[in-house]
Amino acid sequence: MQLHNTTKYAIRILCYIADNGNEKLYSAKELSEILGIPYKFLTKIMIELVNAKFVNSIKGREGGYELIADPSKTSIKDILETFKDLEEDNTCILGIGHCDCNNKCALHDKWVEPRALIRKMYENTTLEDIKDKDFKL
Length: 137
What we know:
Blueprint: H1 5-20, H2 28-35, H3 39-51, E1 55-58, E2 64-67, H4 76-82, H5 108-124, H6 127-130
Antiparallel strand pairs: 1-2
Helix pairs in contact: 2-3, 4-5
C-alpha cells in the first residue's frame, strides 16, 4: 500500500503547521522551501486542503495559510480520503490490478489482515499524535 505523493505532501504540510502552531500564517513559498515540495505542486495541494476545511487561506500581502482543523480530531484517514488514496486500497499487492475475493492473486488472503491493520492505524492516528515529535518532515 503506497500513498500518492500528493497525500504524503499533504500530511507533511498539515503536520508542519500543527507542529509549529497558528501564531503566524505560513506562505506557500515558505512551506515549499521548508518542506522541499515543488511550489506549484504545493499550491495545488493547498487548494484541496482549503476546500476540505483543513486549512484557511488568508489573501493579501500579509496572508498565508493557517490550520483550522483540530489536530486531535483530524485522522490520517481523513487526509487520505480527501485525496482518494483509500479508494485504491484494493489494488493487488503484486501489481496485477484489482484484487478481490472473486479475483484473487497468490497473496490476497495473506494481505487482508495487514491491510486492515494499516487502515486501523490510519483511523486511529491523528495529527495531534504525530505533531511535536522530532520526526523528519
